[in-house]
Amino acid sequence: MSPPAASAWPKAVLFDLLSALLDSWTVWNTVAGSEQRGRAWRADYLRLTYGCGAYVAYEDLVRQAAHNTGQPDTACAALTEEWARLPVWSGVHETLTQVQRHCKVAVVTNCSRRLGQIAADRVGIPWDVVVTSEEAGFYKPDPRPYLLALEKLGVQASEAAFVAGSGYDMFGTSRVGLRTYWHNRIGLSLPNGAPPPEIESSTLDGLPGWLEHFHPPG
Q1: Which has the closest alpha carbon to 186: 165, 208, 207?
Q2: Among 105, 100, 111, 101, which residue's Cα sits nearest to residue 150?
Q3: How many CA atoms lie within 13 A of 121 on its CB side?
């Protein structure tokens, strides 16, 4: 009988925040008045975010997307007011607590510093690093937010993993060289031209097992 494979966790795991760990979709839908209106608003915001590259004030992009999709002028302020109540996906706290026993954990999020920290605190664990697009000066999937987090953690891309919430992250993580687990909780489609993740799942249940054998033994 072959001996069990040796454990080989990465040195750090980086996480998308607003889709991979938090149910921000429900908040957008609630503020918009329906799932259809909320998804349209969020989709336009994502289009603006992933298309602009260099950082533009997060709230300005949310406001522009609201205008583009027929939301009232008060929608952006209402969304910001709900930020401190962003729901955490089930299983997130337990999984991250387990992961944190073995490696550093960090957030890389397309958000302002203020809202990013509020959202990161919702998860309820002590983060080693929280990087926002405002701090990096660029929005994902530009490589710079991921690279800034790796620099702050003191690890190489080959020594780390990324947990995505959006398929757009795959454009960035593939360029940086981060192996990626896509926590596709709401069943999003992979954007055209995006490289596939190594793992795609509607839950985080498989994350610890994937990380435990991250680097082949030997």
Answers
A1: 165
A2: 105
A3: 9
